[in-house]
Amino acid sequence: MLTDELREKLIESALEARRWAYAPYSGYPVGAALLTASGRIYDGVNIENAAYPNTICAERVAVFKAVSEGEREFIAIAVVTSNAGAPCGACRQVLSEFGLDTLVLIADEQRNLMVETTVGELLPRAFGMEQVRK
Ligand code: THU
């Protein structure tokens, strides 16, 4: 369970990070903030590239920052965009690697929490470690 205070803190962190988004091509800045079991918050932004497919989403930047610092357990991720857009398929898959119960908070730039769901709900019948190992 996430307290209202933590919900607001995560959305605020994602909103603050969003200012650093590098999105000159789409003009669609995204900010993400990931709360780990250790209580830390890792933020991320989308980083675009002139060679478009090299672009990376805000959610994956946040996950990779956390994992590269030893984090493995995630409680929740907040994603902030102008219109409360949902995480893309690639980000759902990457998040699923670390747990289907991670909460996903989708908010707009006015801090309105539009959707609260889980990675498992966003990615039913996820492909995971069990499939690879059997
Ligand atoms: N984007 C994200 O950062 N997260 C998502 O889940 C959806 C899309 C970014 C990628 C690109 O820089 C821009 O939004 C438009 O697709």
Provide an overview of this structure.
The chain is α+β, with helices and mostly antiparallel strands. It has a single domain, classed as Cytidine Deaminase, domain 2, CATH 3.40.140.10. The chain is 31% helix and 23% strand. The chain has a five-stranded mixed β-sheet with strand order 2-1-3-4-5. The longest helix is centred in the first third of the chain and has 15 residues. The mean pLDDT is 97. The structure holds tetrahydrodeoxyuridine.
Structural key phrases:
single chain, 134 residues, alpha+beta, Cytidine Deaminase, domain 2, five-stranded mixed beta sheet, 5 strands, 31% helix, binds tetrahydrodeoxyuridine
Write down the CATH topology: Cytidine Deaminase, domain 2
Average pLDDT, all residues: 97
How many separate domains make up the residues?
Answer: 1
CATH class descriptor: Alpha Beta
Strand content: 15-25%
> Shape, please?
globular
**How far do the termini sit from each other?**
33 Å
Ligands (ions, cofactors included)? tetrahydrodeoxyuridine
Strand element count: 5
What is the C-alpha radius of gyration, as a whole number of Å? 14 Å
Structural class: alpha+beta
Quickly give the CATH architecture.
Answer: 3-Layer(aba) Sandwich
Largest sheet: 5 strands, mixed
Helix-strand pattern: HEEHEHEEHH
Strands across the major sheet, in which order? 2-1-3-4-5
Model regions low in confidence, pLDDT < 50 over at least 5 residues: none
The helix tally amounts to 5
